[in-house]
Amino acid sequence: MLIDLRSDTLTKPIDSMRQAMFDAVVGDDGRTSRDGKGEDPTVNRLEDLAAKVTGKEDAMFCNSGTIGNIIALMTHCTRGDLVAVGANSHLYKSEKSPFMESYFGLDPVLYEADNRGVPRVDSLASHFRKRNTNLLCLENSNNFFGGACISAKETKAICELANEYSVPVHLDGARIFNVAAYYDLPVSDLVAPVDSVMFSVSKGLGAPIGSLLCGSKAFIKQARSTRKLLGGGMRQVGIIAAAGIIGIEIQSQRLKEDHEHAYLLASKIVGNTKIKVNLENVQTNIVIIDVSNSGYSAAKFEMELAERGLYVKAVSNNHIRMTTYHGISTENVEKAAVIFNQYCHNLKEVDSDIE
Ligand SMILES: Cc1ncc(COP(=O)(O)O)c(C=O)c1O
């Protein structure tokens, strides 16, 4: 039995999603009316639902989280603008192009964050005082911090500070539904103070493709032009939007099960002296494991665990990630812990591959 914990993007669409995709009423989403809405009724339904759950005025369907974030940054900013962003955020570490001179040319200012990835308010304040910052980016939950969450209260305090300096806030909320499940709060309570939020339907929510960018009517209107310029416009895409609707309405209700699985996994490996797991950060569906105590690289763990039937993802030289999602059972998680612990137990210290 192969257990694949590389990412929650491996979630397969459930039967009702496939049926909804088959039945979807569609139109040309690229043909827009004066209010900016496209002609695909199912996309419009998804966008209205996204606006409702986030409490924002409007929303726009995008083909990926990456392009949703890029469109947000390019709508808030222009080339050369200063953007405060976490050094370990997905936007800065993985997406990169907004901050590359040869792409969108934004100027990153890296703020200090605590061990959950929550920006330190004093560090932000000192950046805002020193230089005129055009945008602040947050991430919730924090992928590289083991799926840790920023509370509604923390988000509010950060946004109040940003407001004092007239800095708009964009939230990469790819997994904001996991955060909502963790705090037992509606998504709208968590994102109320931010100006724009992107969330994914293609991760734990289980749709095959897609993210939603949400914000004010004026912001989304401009974002639609940015999306078009980037070639992100789509046509009869209600076929995919239909899956996103089921993701939000149905699959969001079961995320706590993934969180319980992640915690179970983490608690079964935490006693292992060759690795380190911060159990406090295992709040949602991600477990980040520091393997540096073992003397081996994350790449070696990834390769050799795969040979034993456990797929994990090396996310840095000495960190691996395991992620739970719909389709990963309690039994899978228990087996994964056994494979992992046995593998660590058998590692010989002399064979270290770290130079
Ligand atoms: C926090 C976060 N933001 C954005 C993205 C990008 O989403 P996509 O893979 O749909 O482009 C990811 C993807 O894993 C992510 O983890």
TrEMBL record:
Listed GO biological process terms: glycine biosynthetic process; L-threonine catabolic process
Entry GO MF terms: L-allo-threonine aldolase activity
Keywords, alphabetical: Lyase, Pyridoxal phosphate
GO CC annotation: cytosol
Names of required cofactors: pyridoxal 5'-phosphate
Signal peptide: none
Sequence ranges assigned to domain Aromatic amino acid beta-eliminating lyase/threonine aldolase in this UniProt record: 4-290
Modified positions (N6-(pyridoxal phosphate)lysine) in chain numbering: K203
Protein family: Belongs to the threonine aldolase family.
The protein, known as: Threonine aldolase
Organism annotation: Oceanobacillus profundus
